[in-house]
Amino acid sequence: MKVVLLQDVKKVGKKGDIVKVSDGYGQNFLIKNKLAVKETATAKKIVDEQKEQEKLQDIENKNKALKLKEVIEGLTLEFVLKSGKDGKTFGSVSTKMVVDQLRDQYDIKVDKRKFIDARPIGALGYTNLKVELYKGVIATVKVHLIEK
What we know:
Elements: E1 2-5, E2 18-20, H1 23-31, E3 36-38, H2 41-73, E4 76-83, E5 89-90, H3 95-106, E6 115-116, E7 125-134, E8 137-147
Parallel strand pairs: 4-8
Antiparallel strand pairs: 1-2, 1-3, 4-5, 6-7, 7-8
């Protein structure tokens, strides 16, 4: 029996795949639990339409991420830290602080877990942080630490 999967099923296939399974497994588990439907012309057509919608949504999300990248790369975030005589800073700037400033001052929402190789910044001066906005779209955030 051939079925069209409505959800990802472990060791069977991904959502939208047409897979061949045994009749009992297809009827008694996949179809009964609404994980799949029997393969028909209309089922194939619906799956194709859904895949097309996902592609269009993916393109739209990527374009939004590219526009956001341009905005972020034009900004410089400034933070003030106390420092000692020899230029050693007390404290550091974390990715959470960077995300909070982007959100509060510029209304830009970025996930703090999307920063690439990010560590707390403790050195005075300019530092560049890379953040992945979308698959393959990486923006550079300029952070400037100033001595208090």
